[in-house]
Protein 1
Amino acid sequence: MRSVFGIVALAGLAVGRPAPEPLLLEARAVTVVDQETGFTFSETKAAATLSANIVFRIATPANVPAGQPYDIVLQVVAPNSVGWAGLAWGGSMVRNPLTVSYANGQRTTVSARWATGHSTPQAYSGATFTLLSKGNKSNGTHWQLTAKCTGCTTWTGSSGAVRIDPRDSKRLGYACAAAKPSNPSSPTSSIPVHDVYNYITHDFSAGANANFAALLTQNGISEVPTGNATLFDN
Ligand code: HEM
């Protein structure tokens, strides 16, 4: 486990792309404790260019009851050269929740979208986001989103109900564009098509938080999260 001291620590993030590897990658997520928000995240780095990564971090409640929906906290750290970064929770662009985030001055905007084809995704009401009071910022090199999502890990896809197992690894899709959204303060801003799309395998089990609800409270979110284990554990 290692600690991360905000996005300043990520100024040296740019790394070369790894050597060629087999198509079916093992999950390479690592556990990261974010000192600013207190959440333990599972982290996966995704290549935005040959020399820059987007960092996707996901925190889950520990001990989610089997089959139950659950909230997550998503943290995205992107170089300022990234105009928008998208995560496709079902591992492809079509018929699964898409989370798009972008810088908005010193703050960040997050947007829930859904695509029915390989064309501009529409707003999606099945996933809702609340920005945490900490962890949303930008500096001279990076911007960072930190938001709770209700509805990112369960949805109805092309083949019926889907639920991401919080104890397992899952292939996710991602995409990004250098060009910026036209109206960065709006979650429904139009976005330019991606320059890059690819896939990551994310280990959800590496981001479990026994004190998920308490951490949300510390970060300005007081409602009880969906799938909060403390509702069920005695
Ligand atoms: C302006 C909005 C967008 C347009 C016009 C668009 C268009 C397209 C097109 C035409 C392809 C097929 C490319 C090919 O076959 O070579 C594609 C693939 C893909 N897009 Fe998008 N896209 C948009 C937004 C997004 C967003 C927000 C995401 C979120 C992660 C995303 C994720 C992907 C992924 C993962 C693929 C790979 C194919 C797949 O897995 O379905 N796209 N997109």
Protein 2
Amino acid sequence: MTDSQRSQTLLRRASWLSFWLGVGMLAIKVWAWWLTRSSAILSDAAESIVHVAAVGFVVYSLRLAQKPPDESHPYGHAKISFFSAGFEGGLISIAGGFILWQSIRQWIAGEAPQNLGTGSLLTAVALLINGWLGWHLLRLGRKGGSLILEANGHHVLTDAWTSIGVLAGLGLTWATGWMGFDPICAMLVALNILWSGGALMWRSANGLMDRADPVVQSALVARLDEATARHGVTWHQMRHRHLGDGHWVDFHLVFTDETTVRDAHAIASEIEREIREEVGPSTIVTTHLEPAEDHERIHGHAPGEMPRLEREGRHHPD
Ligand SMILES: [Zn+2]
Ligand SMILES: [Zn+2]
Ligand SMILES: [Zn+2]
């Protein structure tokens, strides 16, 4: 087994662990709600239902993302990561909306929670499990470069914060006897869930839209400037995007008319290697080789200048 296979197995196992702990947590929370009839705990249990659905999708997309490229998906399958993170964010946002609605409803109806002791104990158990699991998933996801697992870690940590909010609500109700604390804490919990759900969806949309990472952008420009100057060539029209498991970079290189194809290819391959070194080993670099003088005759504009069609608002990369 290679290192990357071992790390992929580790990530898949972590996603299954997250799934089964989620199922266990759903059982604990439904039980706690049955005992207490607390608004905050019901909200927490409702989140657990979408939670299990979301983590089920995480398990599936992680498997898919790890599949090597094939004929129908020549760029690989890792882009499902962005969809998975967005789907998870969408589901927990729905749960956040439900919690908000439920706590307002309970506030108006004036229902009081019961069995606060047992309810608090069960919530504390859920808090400990989620706190550990969230930390574990975040650590593994960052180490293994998996956005799917990292997003799931953020989600599980949000759930740990939810449990803290629920505990605060029950504790304050118990200490003061004022029933308003339970729905107030539930609302704060809901706002926190909506916030992290929104953040996950934002990140996923940026990934799907191939938003250029400014840090990668400036690193690429600096390295390209330096490498091309050293090899006595120039570059233009660099583009880069992240497909979920690695960067894809392409740019044009301009050589003198006298350079042979063999020499140009050797220099281009060397620059491609240096770019991979800069951005990371899973980076894929493609270059387009051009002669300085003939560029204008073939493409209709000087190297690095805007093509005529692009100036008129149409896309025509060359
Ligand atoms: Zn959750
Ligand atoms: Zn080649
Ligand atoms: Zn060009």
Protein 3
Amino acid sequence: WTHKELLINQLKSIQLNHPELQNLRILLHGPVGAGKSCFINSVMSAFHGEVVTMAREQANAKKSCTKTYKAYQITTKDNENLPFIFNDVMGLEATEEDGMHPDDVVNALLGHIREDYQFNPTCPISEKDPSFIREPSLQDKVHCLVSVVSASSISRMEKDVINKMGIAREKANTLDIPHVVIMTKVDDDVCPLVKKDLQKIYMSKKIKDKVCACSNDLGPPMKLIFPVSNYYEENETNDTKDVLILLALVEIAKIARRCVRH
Ligand SMILES: Nc1nc2c(ncn2[C@@H]2O[C@H](COP(=O)(O)OP(=O)(O)OP(=O)(O)O)[C@@H](O)[C@H]2O)c(=O)[nH]1
Ligand SMILES: [Mg+2]
């Protein structure tokens, strides 16, 4: 818990060693309200040492609060660019008329969608749309797919949402794009021990059970499921939350960079 600066320095010194690439593009997807936008804000907050809100969040949203495709460059406290861009999308829903269309997750993976594209739940982006990128560069393509799910609702996640996430995982696999899971809301009513003291996270059987459930439902092995607690109510950052968030980003950066090299 005292290694925050070490993790920040590790992330600052990441070299991509690729002439066509300045940033690793990380695509978040997952159910409505899972904490996708909040995670992007939390990563930024961990680097800035203060709670930052760039991506719009909404508590208790029934429908996805994020409706357009947005890309966020992560920066240091001194506003220097770090080599990470997070792409935020509309949430997935169980019905076919609502939430992000599963084909658009695939289009996003392939780098076909331009920023600010407004998602249409009933049909994916058309090749004729001005926001469709016909020949995506390596920089437009996604280098890591991240499913964001909430620890407190993993066991209540609807089958159709799990299936939609499964389609994205399979496509990512065929494209050799790594897939990991960020498990949010570990501070919620999952484990009283962890709710009281986040540093007990790796000692909690209840959290381990949730990690195991994520692995069974979504596919990645347990070592690629990263539990975090986002900044959702507090006005100041703290080292414990920062370390969990930064640890997740270090692992994402490592596997995304390996995927780019191959
Ligand atoms: N307790 C707790 N609440 C969280 C956490 N992360 C997010 N939240 C809450 O969940 C709400 C929704 O988070 P968002 O980031 O807007 O969710 P999203 O996945 O972007 O959802 P859509 O854009 O609507 O699909 C936030 O306003 C917070 O109240 C967390 O780690 N712990
Ligand atoms: Mg959102």
